[in-house]
Amino acid sequence: MELSGQRIVVTGGAGLIGSRVAQRLAADNDVIVVDNLANGRPESVPDAATLLKGDLRDESVVAEAIDGSVDCVFHLAAADKYVDTDSPRRQFEANTDITHNVLERMAAVGVDRLAFTSSCTVYGEAGEPTPEDYGPLEPISGYGATKLAEEAACSVYAHSHGFTVWTFRFANIVGPRFGAGVVPDFVEKLREDPETLTILGNGRQEKSYMHVRECVDAMCHVVEHAGDHREGPLYTYNLGTRDTTTVDRIAGIVSDEMGVDPEFEYTGGDRGWTGDVPRVFLPIDRLVASGWEPDLTSDESVRRATRELLAR
Ligand SMILES: NC(=O)c1ccc[n+]([C@@H]2O[C@H](COP(=O)([O-])OP(=O)(O)OC[C@H]3O[C@@H](n4cnc5c(N)ncnc54)[C@H](O)[C@@H]3O)[C@@H](O)[C@H]2O)c1
Protein backbone atom coordinates (compact mmCIF):
# COMPACT_ATOMS: atom_id res chain seq x y z
CA MET A 1 0.00 0.00 0.00
CA GLU A 2 1.41 3.37 -0.98
CA LEU A 3 1.63 5.69 2.02
CA SER A 4 0.86 8.88 0.18
CA GLY A 5 -2.37 10.73 -0.48
CA GLN A 6 -4.24 8.49 1.98
CA ARG A 7 -6.51 9.27 4.90
CA ILE A 8 -5.02 7.48 7.89
CA VAL A 9 -6.14 7.14 11.51
CA VAL A 10 -3.35 6.70 14.06
CA THR A 11 -4.63 5.45 17.42
CA GLY A 12 -2.29 6.24 20.31
CA GLY A 13 -0.80 8.93 18.08
CA ALA A 14 0.23 11.13 21.02
CA GLY A 15 2.47 8.41 22.48
CA LEU A 16 6.16 7.64 22.01
CA ILE A 17 5.84 5.59 18.82
CA GLY A 18 2.43 6.76 17.58
CA SER A 19 3.45 10.43 17.54
CA ARG A 20 6.43 9.55 15.31
CA VAL A 21 4.19 7.45 13.07
CA ALA A 22 1.78 10.39 12.81
CA GLN A 23 4.63 12.78 12.06
CA ARG A 24 6.00 10.54 9.32
CA LEU A 25 2.62 9.92 7.73
CA ALA A 26 1.38 13.51 7.99
CA ALA A 27 4.04 14.64 5.51
CA ASP A 28 2.15 12.94 2.64
CA ASN A 29 -1.22 11.92 4.02
CA ASP A 30 -4.27 13.25 5.81
CA VAL A 31 -3.75 12.01 9.39
CA ILE A 32 -6.23 11.82 12.27
CA VAL A 33 -4.74 11.03 15.67
CA VAL A 34 -7.03 9.59 18.31
CA ASP A 35 -5.68 9.38 21.84
CA ASN A 36 -7.12 9.79 25.34
CA LEU A 37 -3.81 11.34 26.48
CA ALA A 38 -3.57 8.84 29.35
CA ASN A 39 0.08 8.38 28.47
CA GLY A 40 0.40 10.68 25.47
CA ARG A 41 1.18 14.35 25.14
CA PRO A 42 -0.80 16.67 22.87
CA GLU A 43 2.37 18.61 22.01
CA SER A 44 3.83 15.42 20.51
CA VAL A 45 1.09 15.32 17.89
CA PRO A 46 2.33 16.99 14.70
CA ASP A 47 0.58 20.22 13.70
CA ALA A 48 -0.23 18.71 10.34
CA ALA A 49 -2.40 16.01 11.96
CA THR A 50 -5.86 16.40 13.48
CA LEU A 51 -6.05 15.38 17.15
CA LEU A 52 -9.24 13.78 18.36
CA LYS A 53 -9.02 13.48 22.14
CA GLY A 54 -11.08 10.57 23.38
CA ASP A 55 -11.11 7.10 24.82
CA LEU A 56 -11.25 4.27 22.29
CA ARG A 57 -13.20 2.16 24.77
CA ASP A 58 -16.04 4.53 23.93
CA GLU A 59 -17.62 3.37 20.65
CA SER A 60 -18.80 6.89 19.78
CA VAL A 61 -15.18 8.08 19.85
CA VAL A 62 -14.16 5.26 17.52
CA ALA A 63 -17.09 6.09 15.23
CA GLU A 64 -16.06 9.74 15.11
CA ALA A 65 -12.46 8.80 14.27
CA ILE A 66 -13.09 6.12 11.67
CA ASP A 67 -15.56 6.65 8.84
CA GLY A 68 -15.76 5.25 5.32
CA SER A 69 -13.36 7.88 3.97
CA VAL A 70 -10.45 6.35 5.91
CA ASP A 71 -7.99 4.22 3.90
CA CYS A 72 -5.98 2.64 6.71
CA VAL A 73 -5.66 2.51 10.50
CA PHE A 74 -2.37 2.38 12.38
CA HIS A 75 -3.47 1.00 15.74
CA LEU A 76 -0.97 1.82 18.50
CA ALA A 77 -3.20 2.75 21.44
CA ALA A 78 -2.67 0.49 24.42
CA ALA A 79 -2.68 0.77 28.18
CA ASP A 80 0.91 1.06 29.35
CA LYS A 81 2.62 -2.30 29.62
CA TYR A 82 4.13 -1.36 32.97
CA VAL A 83 0.74 -1.35 34.69
CA ASP A 84 0.11 -5.02 34.08
CA THR A 85 1.64 -6.35 37.26
CA ASP A 86 -0.82 -4.16 39.20
CA SER A 87 -3.90 -5.29 37.30
CA PRO A 88 -3.41 -7.71 34.40
CA ARG A 89 -7.15 -8.16 34.07
CA ARG A 90 -7.86 -4.42 33.80
CA GLN A 91 -5.17 -4.05 31.17
CA PHE A 92 -6.37 -7.11 29.25
CA GLU A 93 -9.94 -5.87 29.20
CA ALA A 94 -8.94 -2.34 28.21
CA ASN A 95 -6.69 -3.35 25.32
CA THR A 96 -8.86 -6.09 23.87
CA ASP A 97 -11.87 -3.79 24.17
CA ILE A 98 -10.09 -1.01 22.27
CA THR A 99 -8.97 -3.39 19.54
CA HIS A 100 -12.41 -4.96 19.11
CA ASN A 101 -13.95 -1.48 18.89
CA VAL A 102 -11.48 -0.51 16.17
CA LEU A 103 -11.93 -3.76 14.21
CA GLU A 104 -15.74 -3.70 14.41
CA ARG A 105 -15.94 -0.09 13.35
CA MET A 106 -13.56 -0.66 10.44
CA ALA A 107 -15.67 -3.58 9.22
CA ALA A 108 -18.89 -1.60 9.63
CA VAL A 109 -17.71 1.28 7.43
CA GLY A 110 -15.64 -0.75 4.95
CA VAL A 111 -12.11 0.18 6.06
CA ASP A 112 -9.95 -2.91 5.58
CA ARG A 113 -6.28 -2.06 6.11
CA LEU A 114 -4.78 -2.23 9.57
CA ALA A 115 -1.26 -1.91 10.93
CA PHE A 116 -1.27 -3.38 14.44
CA THR A 117 1.48 -3.00 17.04
CA SER A 118 2.11 -6.17 18.98
CA SER A 119 5.12 -7.21 21.02
CA CYS A 120 7.76 -9.90 21.30
CA THR A 121 6.22 -10.66 24.71
CA VAL A 122 3.76 -12.92 22.84
CA TYR A 123 6.61 -15.46 22.58
CA GLY A 124 6.85 -15.75 26.37
CA GLU A 125 10.00 -17.21 27.85
CA ALA A 126 11.12 -19.15 24.80
CA GLY A 127 14.82 -19.16 25.72
CA GLU A 128 15.71 -19.52 22.04
CA PRO A 129 15.37 -17.46 18.85
CA THR A 130 11.72 -16.72 18.03
CA PRO A 131 11.04 -16.21 14.33
CA GLU A 132 7.50 -15.14 13.41
CA ASP A 133 6.33 -18.76 12.96
CA TYR A 134 7.66 -19.83 16.40
CA GLY A 135 5.26 -21.75 18.62
CA PRO A 136 3.67 -22.50 20.93
CA LEU A 137 3.01 -18.89 21.92
CA GLU A 138 2.89 -18.89 25.72
CA PRO A 139 3.13 -15.33 27.10
CA ILE A 140 4.15 -15.00 30.74
CA SER A 141 2.88 -11.45 31.35
CA GLY A 142 -0.57 -9.93 31.29
CA TYR A 143 0.74 -7.51 28.66
CA GLY A 144 1.92 -10.37 26.42
CA ALA A 145 -1.46 -12.05 26.87
CA THR A 146 -3.32 -8.92 25.72
CA LYS A 147 -1.10 -8.61 22.65
CA LEU A 148 -1.63 -12.26 21.71
CA ALA A 149 -5.39 -11.92 22.17
CA GLU A 150 -5.43 -8.74 20.07
CA GLU A 151 -3.38 -10.45 17.35
CA ALA A 152 -5.92 -13.26 17.34
CA ALA A 153 -8.80 -10.79 16.95
CA CYS A 154 -6.98 -9.10 14.05
CA SER A 155 -6.46 -12.52 12.46
CA VAL A 156 -10.22 -13.12 12.45
CA TYR A 157 -10.79 -9.89 10.54
CA ALA A 158 -7.95 -10.69 8.13
CA HIS A 159 -9.13 -14.20 7.36
CA SER A 160 -12.90 -13.83 7.59
CA HIS A 161 -13.66 -10.18 6.83
CA GLY A 162 -11.30 -9.34 3.97
CA PHE A 163 -8.88 -7.14 5.94
CA THR A 164 -5.20 -6.76 5.17
CA VAL A 165 -3.36 -6.70 8.52
CA TRP A 166 0.29 -5.93 9.17
CA THR A 167 1.24 -7.07 12.69
CA PHE A 168 4.47 -5.84 14.24
CA ARG A 169 6.04 -7.72 17.13
CA PHE A 170 8.27 -5.06 18.63
CA ALA A 171 11.45 -5.50 20.59
CA ASN A 172 12.02 -2.84 23.27
CA ILE A 173 11.55 0.50 21.54
CA VAL A 174 13.63 3.35 22.96
CA GLY A 175 13.50 7.08 22.34
CA PRO A 176 13.13 10.46 23.97
CA ARG A 177 10.43 9.69 26.50
CA PHE A 178 10.56 9.69 30.28
CA GLY A 179 8.18 7.65 32.41
CA ALA A 180 8.76 4.04 31.41
CA GLY A 181 11.55 1.72 30.40
CA VAL A 182 15.07 0.93 31.51
CA VAL A 183 16.86 3.85 29.82
CA PRO A 184 14.79 6.70 31.33
CA ASP A 185 14.71 4.80 34.62
CA PHE A 186 18.53 4.80 34.80
CA VAL A 187 18.76 8.45 33.72
CA GLU A 188 16.31 9.48 36.45
CA LYS A 189 17.98 7.36 39.12
CA LEU A 190 21.45 8.67 38.27
CA ARG A 191 20.25 12.26 38.30
CA GLU A 192 19.03 11.65 41.83
CA ASP A 193 22.10 9.71 42.97
CA PRO A 194 25.14 9.56 40.68
CA GLU A 195 27.06 7.35 43.15
CA THR A 196 24.84 4.26 43.18
CA LEU A 197 22.58 2.66 40.57
CA THR A 198 20.01 0.07 41.62
CA ILE A 199 19.44 -2.44 38.85
CA LEU A 200 16.36 -4.66 38.83
CA GLY A 201 17.32 -8.35 38.63
CA ASN A 202 20.92 -9.44 38.10
CA GLY A 203 21.76 -7.12 35.17
CA ARG A 204 22.22 -10.02 32.77
CA GLN A 205 18.76 -9.74 31.18
CA GLU A 206 19.42 -9.63 27.45
CA LYS A 207 17.12 -8.16 24.76
CA SER A 208 16.97 -6.21 21.52
CA TYR A 209 16.55 -2.42 21.78
CA MET A 210 15.41 -0.54 18.69
CA HIS A 211 15.36 3.22 18.32
CA VAL A 212 11.88 4.65 17.72
CA ARG A 213 12.97 6.32 14.47
CA GLU A 214 14.05 3.00 13.01
CA CYS A 215 10.91 1.32 14.33
CA VAL A 216 8.73 3.81 12.44
CA ASP A 217 10.88 3.47 9.29
CA ALA A 218 10.52 -0.29 9.41
CA MET A 219 6.74 -0.20 9.95
CA CYS A 220 6.18 2.17 7.04
CA HIS A 221 8.50 0.13 4.83
CA VAL A 222 6.58 -3.07 5.54
CA VAL A 223 3.17 -1.48 4.96
CA GLU A 224 4.41 -0.03 1.69
CA HIS A 225 6.19 -3.11 0.41
CA ALA A 226 4.88 -6.26 2.06
CA GLY A 227 1.85 -7.06 0.01
CA ASP A 228 -1.64 -5.75 -0.43
CA HIS A 229 -5.08 -7.29 -0.97
CA ARG A 230 -3.89 -9.33 -3.91
CA GLU A 231 -1.15 -11.11 -1.98
CA GLY A 232 -2.44 -12.12 1.43
CA PRO A 233 -4.44 -11.07 4.43
CA LEU A 234 -2.05 -11.20 7.39
CA TYR A 235 1.60 -10.19 7.55
CA THR A 236 3.51 -10.61 10.81
CA TYR A 237 6.95 -9.09 11.36
CA ASN A 238 9.43 -9.07 14.22
CA LEU A 239 10.88 -5.56 14.56
CA GLY A 240 14.17 -5.13 16.37
CA THR A 241 17.88 -4.82 15.82
CA ARG A 242 20.07 -7.68 14.63
CA ASP A 243 21.66 -8.07 18.07
CA THR A 244 20.91 -7.81 21.79
CA THR A 245 22.34 -5.98 24.75
CA THR A 246 22.21 -6.53 28.49
CA VAL A 247 20.86 -4.39 31.30
CA ASP A 248 24.43 -4.12 32.65
CA ARG A 249 25.64 -2.72 29.32
CA ILE A 250 22.75 -0.25 29.27
CA ALA A 251 23.73 0.85 32.77
CA GLY A 252 27.28 1.37 31.47
CA ILE A 253 26.16 3.36 28.42
CA VAL A 254 23.85 5.62 30.43
CA SER A 255 26.55 6.20 33.07
CA ASP A 256 29.08 6.96 30.37
CA GLU A 257 26.78 9.47 28.64
CA MET A 258 26.07 11.16 31.98
CA GLY A 259 29.76 11.27 32.89
CA VAL A 260 29.28 9.34 36.15
CA ASP A 261 30.81 6.16 37.55
CA PRO A 262 28.26 4.66 39.94
CA GLU A 263 28.40 1.45 41.87
CA PHE A 264 25.85 -1.04 40.58
CA GLU A 265 23.56 -2.69 43.13
CA TYR A 266 21.26 -5.53 42.13
CA THR A 267 17.84 -6.43 43.47
CA GLY A 268 18.67 -10.04 42.52
CA GLY A 269 17.01 -12.83 40.62
CA ASP A 270 17.20 -13.36 36.87
CA ARG A 271 14.46 -10.86 35.95
CA GLY A 272 13.32 -7.35 36.76
CA TRP A 273 9.71 -8.08 37.71
CA THR A 274 7.08 -10.79 37.54
CA GLY A 275 6.39 -11.41 33.86
CA ASP A 276 9.70 -9.93 32.67
CA VAL A 277 11.31 -12.22 30.08
CA PRO A 278 15.04 -12.31 30.89
CA ARG A 279 16.36 -13.29 27.47
CA VAL A 280 14.73 -12.33 24.17
CA PHE A 281 16.22 -13.32 20.81
CA LEU A 282 14.18 -11.83 18.02
CA PRO A 283 15.29 -12.81 14.51
CA ILE A 284 14.50 -10.13 11.91
CA ASP A 285 15.22 -12.18 8.77
CA ARG A 286 11.72 -11.60 7.42
CA LEU A 287 12.09 -7.83 7.83
CA VAL A 288 15.50 -7.88 6.15
CA ALA A 289 14.11 -10.03 3.30
CA SER A 290 11.45 -7.33 2.75
CA GLY A 291 14.26 -4.91 1.90
CA TRP A 292 14.74 -2.97 5.17
CA GLU A 293 17.39 -3.40 7.82
CA PRO A 294 18.39 -1.38 10.86
CA ASP A 295 21.47 0.85 10.79
CA LEU A 296 21.82 0.85 14.56
CA THR A 297 22.80 -1.90 16.99
CA SER A 298 20.98 -2.23 20.30
CA ASP A 299 23.85 -0.43 22.09
CA GLU A 300 23.76 2.40 19.55
CA SER A 301 19.97 2.70 19.91
CA VAL A 302 20.32 2.93 23.69
CA ARG A 303 23.10 5.52 23.40
CA ARG A 304 21.05 7.64 21.01
CA ALA A 305 17.98 7.47 23.24
CA THR A 306 20.09 8.40 26.28
CA ARG A 307 21.50 11.48 24.50
CA GLU A 308 18.01 12.51 23.43
CA LEU A 309 16.71 12.16 26.98
CA LEU A 310 19.62 14.14 28.41
CA ALA A 311 19.02 16.92 25.88
CA ARG A 312 15.41 17.37 26.97
N1 LIG B 1 7.62 1.02 23.58
C1 LIG B 1 7.86 -0.27 23.50
O1 LIG B 1 8.95 -0.74 23.88
C2 LIG B 1 6.84 -1.24 22.94
C3 LIG B 1 7.19 -2.56 22.81
C4 LIG B 1 6.25 -3.46 22.29
C5 LIG B 1 5.00 -3.00 21.87
N2 LIG B 1 4.68 -1.69 22.01
C6 LIG B 1 3.34 -1.27 21.59
O2 LIG B 1 3.44 -0.18 20.70
C7 LIG B 1 2.32 0.70 20.88
C8 LIG B 1 2.83 2.10 21.16
O3 LIG B 1 3.66 2.05 22.32
P1 LIG B 1 4.32 3.34 22.95
O4 LIG B 1 5.59 2.91 23.57
O5 LIG B 1 4.31 4.47 21.98
O6 LIG B 1 3.29 3.60 24.14
P2 LIG B 1 2.66 4.96 24.64
O7 LIG B 1 2.06 4.66 25.97
O8 LIG B 1 3.63 6.08 24.54
O9 LIG B 1 1.50 5.19 23.56
C9 LIG B 1 0.23 4.61 23.66
C10 LIG B 1 -0.78 5.71 23.51
O10 LIG B 1 -2.10 5.15 23.58
C11 LIG B 1 -2.92 6.06 24.31
N3 LIG B 1 -4.04 5.31 24.87
C12 LIG B 1 -3.99 4.36 25.84
N4 LIG B 1 -5.23 3.91 26.11
C13 LIG B 1 -6.08 4.60 25.28
C14 LIG B 1 -7.49 4.59 25.10
N5 LIG B 1 -8.29 3.81 25.84
N6 LIG B 1 -8.02 5.42 24.16
C15 LIG B 1 -7.22 6.24 23.43
N7 LIG B 1 -5.89 6.28 23.57
C16 LIG B 1 -5.32 5.47 24.49
C17 LIG B 1 -2.00 6.65 25.36
O11 LIG B 1 -2.45 7.90 25.85
C18 LIG B 1 -0.68 6.77 24.61
O12 LIG B 1 -0.53 8.05 24.01
C19 LIG B 1 1.50 0.10 22.02
O13 LIG B 1 0.48 -0.70 21.47
C20 LIG B 1 2.50 -0.76 22.75
O14 LIG B 1 1.86 -1.81 23.44
C21 LIG B 1 5.56 -0.80 22.54
- How much beta, percentage-wise? 15-25%
Distance between the termini: 36 Å
- What is the CATH topology of the largest domain? Rossmann fold
What is the H level of CATH, i.e. the homologous superfamily of the largest domain?
NAD(P)-binding Rossmann-like Domain
CA gyration radius, whole angstroms: 19 Å
Structural class: alpha/beta
> Tell me, what's the shape?
globular
Broad CATH class of the largest domain: Alpha Beta
Count all strands and give the number.
Answer: 13
Percent range of helical residues: 25-40%
pLDDT < 50 runs, ≥5 residues: none
Average per-residue pLDDT, rounded, comes to 95
Number of domains: 2
The largest sheet has its strands arranged as 3-2-1-4-5-6-11
**Cofactors, ions, other ligands:** nicotinamide-adenine-dinucleotide
Would you identify the CATH architecture of the largest domain? 3-Layer(aba) Sandwich
Q: What does this molecule look like?
A:
The chain has 312 residues and is an alpha/beta fold. It folds into two domains: 7-172 and 209-239, Rossmann fold (3-Layer(aba) Sandwich), CATH 3.40.50; 178-208 and 242-281 and 296-310, UDP-galactose 4-epimerase, domain 1, CATH 3.90.25.10. It has helices at 16-26, 59-65, 88-109, 142-160, 182-192, 212-225, 247-258, 285-289, 298-310; strands at 7-11, 30-35, 50-53, 72-75, 113-119, 164-170, 172-174, 196-199, 206-207, 209-211, 234-239, 245-246, 263-266. It has a seven-stranded parallel beta sheet, sandwiched between helices. Helix 1 (16-26) crosses helix 6 (212-225) and helix 5 (182-192) packs across helix 7. The longest helix is centred in the N-terminal third of the chain and has 22 residues, at 88-109. It is globular. Bound molecules: nicotinamide-adenine-dinucleotide. Nicotinamide-adenine-dinucleotide (NAD) binds next to helix 1, strand 5 and strand 7. The site of nicotinamide-adenine-dinucleotide has 27 residues, from helix 1, strand 5 and strand 7.
